[in-house]
Write a structure and sequence with these properties.
alpha/beta; eight-stranded parallel β-sheet; about 40% helix; globular
Length: about 280
């Protein structure tokens, strides 16, 4: 009998730094993490590929990057440094979105990774030209699962960080709902699949084991993807340009916590991944 509540626990940023890679592997081997997405332009891409090949139970997808790092296309220039910079580049047609993302997918596939799902760094596929490119790539490469970055209704935990930050995240998450209709129409036109629900944006970098256990209790029926960013905060991560540093260790601790796994069992939540659900084709 199929559980009425199924959960994919998916880590972004595989390939970002070696200590992020190690954290993702620990969360999978000893915790509840079932999947991750790989950055083709990450500094630790080769390390991530090696770890993935040594860990066939880890479901790997593509974390498509248009913000931060370098392009995979000649002249290998830096990509826009922020979402506003990306929007300006898109408006001025200074970035070849489809070509860039195809190059990233091809690099991942050429490394021997049988990618099962697609998402984007900083949720850039909410922008119409990026969404069109991602949906087209999903169809062409038969990687049918694409992240739907619309959070289920949650109250971000206030004890884990400044209230204003949580309020801004909730406001942003609410505004994303306006884009939902067009988003799903584009994916449907290209034969893409999504989970029924998504969670993680509101509490990124802010949750501990008790918060994650509470989320498990609140999961709706159907298939949910929970986005997370585990890692170890070593020297490589401290030097990297990212706001998520020490918080990655807190997320890792939560993903490893026995109370979280016990809550999954208590609530009858089944852990799955995209490969199990027919991620390719």
């Amino acid at each position: 009998m199929i559980s009425r509540k199924r959960l994919i626990v998916n880590a972004d940023d595989f390939g970002f730094t070696p200590d992020v890679n190690r954290g993702i592997l620990a969360a999978h081997r000893d915790g509840i993490l079932t999947a991750c997405t790989l950055m083709a332009n990450g500094e630790a891409f080769d390390d991530a590929v090696r770890l993935a090949q040594d860990t066939p139970s880890l479901d790997v997808g593509c974390h498509l990057v248009l913000i931060s790092g370098r392009s995979l296309l000649p002249p290998y220039a830096p990509l826009p440094a922020s979402a506003p910079a990306l929007l300006r580049a898109l408006a001025a047609r200074r970035i070849r979105v489809y070509d860039e993302l195809v190059a990233q997918v091809r690099k991942i596939l050429a490394a021997g990774i049988a990618a099962t799902h697609l998402d984007t760094h900083k949720h850039t596929h909410l922008a119409p030209p990026v969404l069109e490119a991602v949906a087209r790539i999903a169809e062409e490469f038969e990687i049918r699962w694409v992240r739907r970055p619309f959070d289920i209704p949650l109250t971000a935990p206030r004890g884990a960080g400044p209230w204003l930050e949580g309020a801004l995240k909730r406001a942003t998450s609410g505004s994303l709902q306006i884009l939902r209709g067009r988003f799903h129409r584009v994916l449907a036109r290209h034969g893409c699949r999504t989970t029924d629900h998504f969670a993680g944006f509101q509490i990124t970098g802010r949750f501990r084991a008790s918060d994650l256990a509470q989320l498990m209790r609140e999961l709706p029926e159907g298939l949910t993807e929970f986005m997370c960013h585990p890692g170890y905060c070593g020297d490589d991560l401290r030097r990297a340009r990212t706001r998520l540093k020490e918080s990655r260790e807190r997320e890792l601790e939560a993903l490893l916590a026995p109370e979280v796994r016990a809550t999954l069992v208590e609530m009858g939540v089944e852990l799955v991944n995209y490969r199990m659900l027919g991620g390719v084709g």
